[in-house]
Amino acid sequence: MRPPFFSYIIPFFAWVILVHQMTAGDLTWLHQFAPFTGMGLIGAIFANSTGAGGGVVFIPAFQWLGFSDAQSVGTSFAIQCFGMTAGSFAWLRFARNNEQHAEDWASFTKITLLCALFAVLGLVGINGLGITAPGDLKHLFAVFSLLLGSLLLFSVLRFRAPHTRRQMTPVDGYAIAAIGLFGGMITAWLSVGVGEILALYLLLRGFSATMAVASAVCVSAISVWSGIGHHAMAQNVVWDVILFAGPAAVVGGTIAKRLAVWMPTRQLKIFFSCWVLFMGLVSLPWENWL
Fold it and tell me: Is the pTM value of this prediction over 0.90?
């Protein structure tokens, strides 16, 4: 059943009133931050249709705009709280309403909860202990994206067999727990990590591509919510950006599922890997080599 019309129109008018109050007739402020609406929309669409966290889009954009590393990660977390949550609800509705895919999604709940539990432990542990990243944000992001994108693209081009796995084995359980723990640590530093690695693992293991994306989106949503409090208290979030990018990310997260379901499995894998690889290339320190 579709949500009633007023569930959309009332929040929209509330947002318009809030923007009006904050701008107070200052069109300069409006022109400065309104373009972030498009970034939130596009980032959420890519994130929720591929399983890659929204940070794959937001981190390079914020670095290019001159945000500090802390502001880049904190603001990315906040936008993902909007977009990945909306995407999670969209995927959960899809899982509930598509009984013909029930066998392919048999391990969805177990995989998602197990990975999310350890991801939260890893992320909260890093933030709580104050462990800093082992390098510059821009360089670490580029290396992570290039490695992950290359591995997935190689696997897609090398192996053409359709997905055959539906049940999680004990080996999968240990691997997913490790992915959650270390992926959560990486996410604390880069605002990306656990969702991308989980999606890659599930695809390589032969699980359904749509189930892999849905699980990665849900784990990412839980992870960013467990870390947003730390960034809010540390004043790492640029709230003016969130005012425009956040609502747009909700729209993007809601419609992204349609793109992932419409796209054939092999094309979805190639799309995911090429996007991550592209963002890694964009983030490389080209200015040091030219």
Answer: no
Average pLDDT over residues 86-110: 82
The answer to whether position 103 is within a domain reads yes
Q: How far apart are CA 40 and CA 102, in angstroms?
A: 32
DSSP one-letter string for 227-284 = HHHHHHHTT---HHHHHHHHHHHHHHHHHHHHHHHHS-HHHHHHHHHHHHHHHHHHHS
- Work out how many domains the chain is built from and give that number: 1
Position 32 in a domain: no
Q: How confident is the model at residue 11 (pLDDT cuts 50, 70, 90)?
A: low
| Encoded amino acid at 112, one letter | T
The answer to whether residue 203 is domain-embedded is yes
pLDDT digits (tens, 9 = 90+) for 207-233: 888 888 899 999 999 999 999 999 989
- What gap in Å lies between CA 199 and CA 164, rounded to an integer? 16
Task: Look up the domain containing 82 and give its range.
Answer: 37-284
Joined tokens for residue 178: 């490790």
Neighbour-count burial for 127-165, b at 16+ CB within 10 Å, e otherwise = beeeeebeeebbebbbebbbebbebbbeebeeeeeebee
Kindly report which listed range (1-5, 261-265, 271-275) carries the lowest average pLDDT score: 1-5
In a domain, 17, yes or no: no
